[in-house]
Write a structure and sequence with these properties.
2 copies of one chain form a homodimer. By secondary structure, chain A is an alpha/beta fold. The first copy, chain A, has 14 helices and 12 strands. Chain A has a 6-stranded mixed β-sheet, sandwiched between helices. In chain A, strands 7-6-5-8 form a 4-stranded parallel β-sheet, with helices on both faces. A two-stranded antiparallel ribbon of chain A has the order 1-2.
């Protein structure tokens, strides 16, 4: 079903539907929460799609599971591999574990111990690299050549984007119509999946991406009309440091209405307020959409807004508001 | 409907049903969450009734709302009053605010600023006392005499117990049969409501109370056959420091199967693990049941166990695992 456009394999709405059927036995249909406190505060009606309650603690498991369970028996026998220091590493390990196939992950030596333990807990095998692009690429090339595993990119992969698109399909089923959906943007996997699904299912819904000011490469790309990649942005929203790639740029440039940004301080305040008032543990990355809603109240007031809470894998020993 | 036994007004099952109809417009029917991680860890099937998502952040709003909305117009005009440094103060203020009547709360001068601000946010009026029983009683007597407000005790009140009983009524509807229900015990309001409801609705369900080792007065009372009250117990589970009173003792002594205890270290570990794996913010008090399940695995393995997560009002600036 995937369309080949300009040398890229673009996933279609049917790919998303297929992905949903494929991954349903392995993922949660996460709940949508509302908060009268945040509705009063923003003047909008917010519908929080809680992927922090997802298997492996993040939406990334949707795309990873779609890739893993879409492999033929022959392909699957060699396993999968990827590079990631975050939720994609956990998610791919989880999915591979469910299928009973090997999963090799290249992670920087400096990645948090908790993340490494979680990957191992799901049965993934870690090969460490230095925390630099050149080291990661060299080590990953070696691992891929040695294992022959299928490379599942964290976001620039049509199977992954089709998988992430299942999230907004559920969100639309769980709500009674929306005016907007807002999600954080890093590499653009979730936003691309959202575009893929909504452009067919509910093209009237505006899609807003939210990004840290300190890692605003997607916002600048959007304004410039071509991909701008930053070298090493620093932000508390550590899931959002990676740049757009050609596949996600395709969706962002065609379907996103706007990209809004928030400062580090605003992100941390929104994160803490969400823990306090909604009693849910969310990552800093997930607080970026709420932070941008709070500072652009006029854009959202009176609207029905789906907010994708992307994950809840937080190091509880070092919270950004406790110094 | 309430029965007068030995000079006490004992709430009945019908009172609980009436309470449920009365409070339904003002409270959340909170969700029941499950966790494959905790099921694997304990060998039991756990059903977490999430009162941390409740209005005002705790189950206490059930009893408080039942008391407030059960008042006649004439009684209501004078408002309500209570003494509490915790969730009952918030809950009564919330309920009184919904009905538009005054709420006076006596709180120790030393109570957390965040709690005081929350009470005021809901429209409650605070009168401060010194952090001692004698000061609290003197100040409260003055406030009650001055305002003429109806005294809603945090737990030793039949209207409050009938209200708390609505929680396990929902839990039974939301699950497909349970072998046990476990909840924390302090003054015994939640456990008494659970006894009230289950002794009629599902008398086969065993009711287990969970208590901090360092505030184990209910456990010692249960073994001794009469109320033992500690003077000033110290525990991280600050909602559980108060002693049983005659009404809650009636239910505990007649219907509770057992009272289990956990150490401070075990409580903190269970609390942190719940945040980590379930991505929900729970108070230390709510972690006591899980802590006792983890240390008494044999008692719970193979059983379907309802676990009441009583509240989520936590000071995020001082977490017990961050020193």
């Amino acid at each position: 079903m995937m369309k080949d456009i300009a040398g890229m394999i673009i996933p279609t709405y049917d790919d998303m539907l297929e992905a949903h059927a494929r991954i349903a036995p392995h993922i949660h249909r996460t709940p949508v929460l509302t908060s009268s406190f945040f509705n009063d505060l923003t003047g909008a009606q917010l519908f929080f799609k809680c992927e922090n309650f997802q298997k492996a603690g993040a939406f990334k498991v949707r795309g990873a599971t779609n890739a893993v369970f879409g492999l033929s028996e022959e392909e699957a026998a060699k396993g999968v591999c990827t590079h990631s220091s975050g939720n994609h590493a956990l998610s791919l390990s989880y999915a591979a574990g469910r299928r009973g196939i090997p999963c090799h992950v290249v992670m920087p030596r400096t990645a948090p111990t908790a993340k490494k333990e979680a990957v191992r807990g799901y049965g993934g095998t870690i090969t460490e690299c230095e925390p630099s692009t050149s080291s990661r690429e060299a080590v990953f090339a070696e691992v891929q050549a040695r294992t022959g595993g299928d490379f599942v990119h964290p976001y620039n992969d049509p199977r992954v984007i089709a998988g992430q698109g299942t999230c907004s399909a559920e969100l639309m089923e769980q709500t009674d119509g929306l005016d907007m959906v807002i999600a954080p943007i890093g590499g653009g996997g979730m936003i691309s999946g959202t575009c893929l699904t909504l452009s067919t299912l509910a093209p009237e819904v505006r899609i807003i991406a939210a990004e840290p000011e300190q890692a605003d490469d997607a916002c600048r790309s959007f304004r410039a009309g071509h991909i701008i990649a930053d070298d090493a942005p620093e932000t508390i929203a550590d899931g959002l440091k990676v740049p757009l790639k050609e596949l996600t740029w395709h969706f962002v440039s065609n379907h996103v209405t706007d990209i809004l940004t928030a400062s580090e301080e605003e992100i941390i305040a929104a994160m803490k307020l969400t823990w306090q008032r909604m009693k849910i543990v969310i990552e800093a990355s997930c607080a970026v959409p709420l932070a941008t809603i709070l500072k652009n109240r006029d854009r959202f007031a009176g609207k029905r807004v789906g907010v994708i809470i992307t994950g809840g894998n937080v190091d509880l020993d070092t919270l950004p508001w406790i110094r």
